[in-house]
Amino acid sequence: MSLPPRMRAVVFERPGAFTVTDVPTPRTARGEALVRVHASMVCATDQKILAGKFPATKFPHVPGHEFSGEVVAVGEGVTLAPGTRVGVEVHVGCGVCDRCREGMYTLCLNYGKRETGHAHVGFTTGGGLAEYASVPAAALHELPDDVSFEAGAWTDNLGIALWALERGRLAAGDRVVVFGPGAIGLCAAQLARAMGAGEVTLVGRGERLWRVDDLADDAVDERDVETLKGTADLVVEFAGTADAARQAIGTARRGGRVVLGGSTGVGTELSGVDLSTIVRGNLDVLGSLANPKGASARALTFLARGKVDVARLVTHHFPLARFDEAWRTFTERRDGAIRVMLHPAAGT
Ligand SMILES: [Zn+2]
Ligand SMILES: [Zn+2]
């Protein structure tokens, strides 16, 4: 297949300004595969990138880190066959630093240094809100036959949710409370159920919560969160606010586990926690970042077996040319938007 020299892509030109325009099709370096993007989503992290809150992201930048597609060409050293359907995991470590050697490539000590082999797809390298993306083969997961491109775009997100549950040592029969009924929280709730949690309760706000409450066993409005105080074996937080983190700590039973995963950007401070809640409660309070140690590969098996429904978390679909509308729909939470999906390979 001969590749077009130029492609349509979303470009974050500078903080606060984006366009959809033609740019050169990325060249595939050693160790990379060129992926024709079939399904690609935007998330709140893209808002932080556009706002200039990720110093490692250099403008102009092609964003997009939740996507899937088909391999159309490979660089030197890559054995993936053209036509292979793949989902993308966004963290690639250098492979040789102390954290990478532990399997914690999400914490790579060479973050942002592409020359070491490190890549954070859609952050420090070009992403999937484009017709094509050149992605390190180490970030690609072959999609099981039963997983569509649309579901495969959740490869990274599902890994993030699964890793948080693994961090929290989810045990069969556990009472689990999930704060934040957004895309990742809803993945976590469904995975927890599939992994044998005894009862899963979602905590969130308003109409958005009631629309998805069937993805858990119970749902509680955050204003009534006191009713859950001290009850949960495992609390998982993907709301990203200090309030939610504080409430999450208060919701764990004595001896329970709390996994905080929402505040991935800097600047959110936690106050108002009586430290004796943690110390006398003998709590495990853990941070959870991304999806190391092959979490995304394991998560894909849940998708393949129909244990997790991601289709209904995609509330809107757009062609790439209508990115502007897709962005507004997502950022303004129009019509109860959870995730919006772009379809670059489908053309305009
Ligand atoms: Zn994301
Ligand atoms: Zn490393």
Describe the fold and architecture:
By secondary structure, the chain is α/β, with parallel strands linked by helices. The chain has two domains: 6-154 and 310-346, Quinone Oxidoreductase, Chain A, domain 1 (Alpha-Beta Complex); 160-287, 3-Layer(aba) Sandwich (Rossmann fold). Helices cover 23% and strands 27% of the residues. Strands 3, 4, 5, 8, 9, 16 and 17 form a seven-stranded mixed sheet that branches. Strands 12-11-10-13-14-15 form a six-stranded parallel sheet, with helices on both faces. The protein has a two-stranded antiparallel ribbon with strand order 1-2. α4 (155-167) packs across α5 and α4 crosses α9 (295-304). The mean pLDDT is 96. Bound molecules: zinc ion (2 copies). The site of one zinc ion has 4 residues, from loops. One zinc ion (ZN) is lined by residues 93-94, 97, 99-100, 108-110.
C-alpha termini separation: 21 Å
CATH topology of the largest domain: Quinone Oxidoreductase, Chain A, domain 1
Low-confidence stretches: none
Structural class: alpha/beta
Beta-strand residue fraction? 25-35%
Superfamily at the CATH H level of the largest domain?
Answer: Medium-chain alcohol dehydrogenases, catalytic domain
Task: Give the helix level as a range of percent.
Answer: 10-25%
Number of domains: 2
* Gross morphology: globular
Q: What's the topology here?
A:
Elements: E1 6-14, E2 17-24, E3 32-41, H1 44-50, E4 66-74, E5 85-88, E6 91-92, H2 98-101, E7 119-120, E8 132-136, E9 140-142, H3 149-152, H4 155-167, E10 175-179, H5 183-194, E11 199-204, H6 206-211, E12 218-221, E13 232-237, H7 242-251, E14 252-260, H8 275-279, E15 284-287, H9 295-304, E16 314-318, H10 323-331, E17 339-342
Parallel strand pairs: 10-11, 10-13, 11-12, 13-14, 14-15, 16-17
Antiparallel strand pairs: 1-2, 3-4, 3-8, 3-17, 4-5, 5-9, 6-7
Helix pairs in contact: 4-5, 4-9
This protein binds zinc ion (2 copies).
